[in-house]
Queue: 3 jobs
Job 1
Amino acid sequence: MKLNSFLSSKRLFLLVKRDIISNKLAILVVFGAIFVGVYLNSLINIYSSTPSSTLYSSLFANIIFISGFIITSIQFKEIHKKETAQDYLLIPASTFEKFLSRLLLSTIGFALLALAGLTLMSYMVEGINTLIFGRHSIPFYPFSGEVFKAIAHYFVAQSIFFLGAIYFRKYNFIKTINSIFIFLFALAILGVIFTRIVYHDIFSEFLRSDNFYFQLHLNSLPIESDRARMLVRTAKILYWIIPAPLFWTISYFRLKETEVKNAL
Amino acid sequence: MITIEKLNFDYKKKKLFKDLSLDLKHGSIYGLLGKNGAGKTTFLKILAGLIFPESGEISVLGFTPAERNPDFLKELFFLPEEYTLPGIKAGEYKKIYAPFYPDFDEERFFELISEFNLPEDSKLSNFSYGQKKKFLLSFGIASNSRILLLDEPTNGLDIPTKTRFRKIVASSQSKERIIIISTHQVRDVEHLIDPVLILDEGRIIFNETMDRVADILTVEKVSSLSDTADILYSENEIDGYKVVVKNRDRDQNAIDFETLFNAVITNPHGIQSAFNGGSPNETK
């Protein structure tokens, strides 16, 4: 396949433009709802006995995670309905371009919009508060390390919801959350079984021990601190480099395999 | 232009296409006829790359449809039977979608919109079913795509629009273009489609031009079936029978589509034999 058949900046731009125009009303509704939420939080904060100086950083994390996951979950609603799927799949653009346009919109696009939107909202809200109530919170500062860390974590977790958006036909957000819980639960069970096997001599019954317990603080784990640090570092590296590319790659192939069968 | 070799496709454990092979050339308006459930829509979707075959080779303009290559997609326009349109106006739709089709003819698009009496200032989502169909047809024709697949295009159209539809589709045909119209309403596409493809039980059981049909078959009215020999197909009428027979004298009693379709479906082997020069001894 020629590179131009796989990725063309012109077609990618056209797809992004199409998606923005098609969803402009939804974007406005979401930001309207966020504005109301931000305003209420700010009101509570200025009248709180201990006003938070990091109100907007916390709000940003909430916005990017909750709204971001919901928005990501509905990214591919078109491909789950026969009438809209055929229209979308037959747009003269490659599968990769269709995948990339939605990925860019729900990651970088959404993060930038959330940053710009919340900055603007915070100045508006605090301006209103100063005018009406004569008091205000500290407006949002979008260039802090905390904000960028939240965005980075969002990109990793978003990849799961992105796959859920392609994989599930209905109730994508709920089903993705359920899948994550089931996965984590299964992982916990495996962890318990693994621990029971490794430390079998200190368990008196299957899940009961009189002298063994877990603490989440790494320094308390019964392993040497160097080993613990190495484990943590490895886990961090794996967390940053594996899940997002893996889930995005699976999503791409899932989109490539999408068909519009009569039963859809 | 379109080559299909040994296409196999199952749907819900039912064999829909079995070793289906077909060659379609550009410059024609093919009529894909078949009973309900014969697989006409599925066939068009396979050609468009919306459904992947189980096995077999399909080449459309040299592309494999299932790959959905953008160079292939810009040369294909599929008008499905069921669709939704966004809540935007015709002009906005054109602005969003037309740039994907490099040969899009804007002038022709607005010409067709006005010919179909479509309001330009209304949102497409507020259009009636027939209006939506006319809108998409206008867009498809103006896209200048070399492959135009129309699935039941006359469903939902009123009688004057059906006539206009035939006129517009006929005038949109070019030497480079191939139009496939799938329908079970055979009368609606009479005098428009040529050649005729009839799909039945997973196979193309008939693929002939109308000139050849007129050369080989003719329709006669008889009062009794015993009056005529070698009847390929007969239909009861008030004053006797309408029969399809081999055209031995090269008469020009053109056979209508409905009768042809019924004859092929009822007696496929007899009709096939007549076209292959044999004697229609499998008459029903």
Job 2
Amino acid sequence: MRAPDSVEPGLIIPGRSNGLLDVPRWRFLLSLLVKKELRVRYRGSALGLLWSYVKPGVQLIVYYIAMGKFLGLERGIPNFVIYLFSGMVIVNFFGEVFGNTTKSIVVNADLVKKIYLPRELFPVASVWVAFIHLVPQLVVLIIAALISGWRPGLVNIAAILGALILTVLFALGLGLMFGAFNVLFRDAENFVELILMMAAWVSPVLYTWSHVASVLPDSLDWVYKLYPITQAVELNHVGFWIPTSAVQERYPDSTGPLIDALPMWAGAAFVISVLWLVVGQAVFRRLESRFAQEL
Amino acid sequence: MTRAIVVDQVVKQFTLRHTWSIKEYVVWNLTGRGGELKDTFLALDDVSLTVEQGESVGLLGRNGSGKSTLLKLISGVLRPDRGQVGVRGRVAGLIEVGAGFHPDLTGRENIYLNGSILGMTERDITARLDEIIAFSEIEGRFIDSEVKFYSSGMFLRLAFSVAAHSHPDVFLIDEILAVGDEPFQHKCLERIAELRKEGQTLVIVTHDLNLVSQVAERGIVLAGGKTVFDGPIEGAVGRLRGEG
């Protein structure tokens, strides 16, 4: 086989792209794909996007009553419902990005088989759709936080942004990898569902890091701390839960039951997520040439 | 002359997979590995050709001769197992009518979606929007209703119209010339003739021999994944007719 550049100058090799780096050039198509996706999701629905506000709102009230009051979790963790919801928002976002990106190539099989486009467009479109669904949850969370006396500083806002970026990087890296596997074996979808079910429980969403620290052997606690979603959840706690009044009263000079040395661990998790994304993209590119014939 | 498409000693093999599940794989191992686990099929076997800029070429052959595979290799949807494909500029066209259309979007929205899938910019599409709608002969009140309410003829006309106005450097057409009713078909042919005059490079795959002799000047006949004829379209058509 000859070297790829032996084709005469001026000719390009069809079907080759720079992967994610090409996506910005296609942003108009990307915006149309996102719009299409949203349209399809809300077709035939009278309330449309409003449902995205109603569901998390009701969910939050139910948690407040059932877990905060009845189960009495509020006694251990002040403003428990804010603690819970700020973590849950991240886990939901992770689930939606990871789940949708995994399915994105198979769902768009018609296009992938017939017309050449940088295939990364489909997973990236899924990320935007997931982000649009995150907004209503964030709005509900912000309202609840404000009621609880939320007074964020710059650090807290930065923590929220960090949490979201960390989640997207990690989920997209995983999604590219599993999205490509899913073309070859549809088992990947089921496997991802299993992972997502676990994801909700292995991050400190329903409990605090101190609960984990007391059980997990010291030799293993770095594994838990390096898991990017743990760090994203903790960053979101810093963003939404820490600067509420009841928490400030209880832990005036510390981050309370959150992971200690958070900036360092979050930084490490960030590096891991970026590496994941590079690995995910590499796997995706390797398998990409087989997409059209395997679908 | 500059070359628009270069296909150099291309081999494309498909794997027809027999086993899909782990259970089948284990059973196959335990039963002494009887039979082949995979079956392969050679769709293109050492095909070479070049197309000059401004040429219009008809790709002919019986079903399963590798025409569509070759077209997909040129568009980049598939990649060759061996050999090389090179193209100059943007390749687009109608590989299959309606790919890139969504039934829940309106006609107008679909023009934008499909146009940008074919590589047009937002500005291109907006500039040619009226032309595209006029060519498709879809009435004003339908263009803003969802495509799922369209008749199949309307749908095909809109799809052809978008592609015919997308101005790629290499225009590929796969089996779509039988679009719509007779008058519209005639209009499609006129549009293709127009594109030819403008110096558009065309590659057309079709079974309709009468039609292809009107729109192409050169014909390439594939059989069993090999090129068996490459020359004037009359010769290619004659060869296929001769074979029956």
Job 3
Amino acid sequence: MTLKPQRHVLVVFPHPDDEAFSSAGVIRLYRNMGVPVTYACLTLGEMGRNLGNPPFATRESLPEIRRKELQEACKVMGIEDLRMMGFRDKTIEFEDDEKMVKLVQDLISELNPSLIITFLPNYSVHPDHEATGRAVVEAVRRMPKDERPTVYGVGFANNTIAEKGEPDVIIDITTVKEDKLKALLAHNSQTTWMVEENQKRIDEGQPMSDSWFHYEKFYTISFVD
Amino acid sequence: MRMKEVDVLELQKLIDSFANKDVYIHLETTNGSYATHYNEQFFNASAFIRNAKIRYEHGKVINDNPHRVGLKLENGWVYAQGITHYELDEQGRLLMAGLNHEGKLAIALEISETPFT
């Protein structure tokens, strides 16, 4: 499946690295096509658990580390418009729901994106992911039907395929897989353990790399009027 | 400075230095938000409080591994189990953490005379 041309792509995720895992390839491909990409990253992943043992960071120094990692990852993906929205990790679902919808509405009216990439509500595991996807879907749902951008949702809950079937958007990112790897590695505090985990999975015969570095998959979100 | 493994005598002195003062605490336990994703049988419970203002009359670190730290308040208690590392950071805040064998944070107890940002 080839990428559909876009006017502007808006990416909305809560944590630095969500974009790299799910969409770095697609983002890089769009940037290579000259499509502007804005990334609204809601938190700095302040509650990330990986501090190392022996530790490389503290609970209090982690946010600054992750801010720099996010900026570096954006460079690799070619994102020139990074918005760090200043929310706190693991608190998005407790924010005022209308405030979150308004935040997305404001981004949409400013940027007029033709595609938004976010998490797929009910199938995105982490409470921040769910709250982010919900806010995006609700903001777009409230738009006039003919003005709505396309919304791609990332779903990876264990029951996703059983309940939703295979994703309808499957993008071959093989040509930019090196860039995706670099984006993931830019999130060094988050991905060092992952490299080890991956080795374990390879040993168990279930490497993650295949799915991550060849295809990125999304569900086009449909709106019921 | 990096967090280092608990030295009971030194940590006890640091805990003492915040006693009988109004201090802000950060207390957090966590299994990670993906615990149930990886193991559906896992019952994921945790707690988080940041910038609660307390005053403790004394505090104690117990010499066990991992360590327990308890703070006795005028009308109550704060405690944390599983503390392995600590540092007094450049802002004079006492940061204690419990890091598991994979280097993932399981618990944090932090004490500061000024609010955490």
